[in-house]
Amino acid sequence: MPKLAKEHNEEGAIAFVKYYFDVMNYSLETYSVDDLIAITNRTCRICGDNFIDPIQSHAKKKYWQVDGEYRTNVYGVKLTSDDEALVEFGTRTDEVAVYSAPALEVANSPARKKEALGIATLQWDKAWMMSQVDFSK
After folding, report:
1. Is residue 17 classed exposed, middle or buried when 0-12, 13-18 and 19+ CB atoms within 10 A define those classes?
2. Which residues, in sequence order, are bridge partners of residue 78?
3. Residues pairing with 88 in the sheet
4. What is the pTM of this model?
5. Quick one: DSSP state of residue 114?
């Protein structure tokens, strides 16, 4: 984890969200979620249902993913208490394809051209943890 992402301040919260999506990209490339789980509170339903669980499911099926990287920008941050920060962010994803065998595509999704805007709720307990992600509709 970058040193800045370990700091208990607004700059640290911003760096943590950027790092979180870097870890997400790593998890999508390797289908290893240990690092992602280590920085995610299981209270984050979107993180579990939409990020961690699908990666684990694909790994068990021996699927692999090509592309689909998250590209994330941070637009604002507010420390709401000593142990919580809200971080406004936007993310796009590249085109993605999932394969079960060479040339056997099982899923795909086009690149997201419009940025999905969201709010990340971080909790501090000796380090930042992702505790909730909400995307605007």
Report:
1. buried
2. 86
3. 76, 119
4. 0.92
5. S
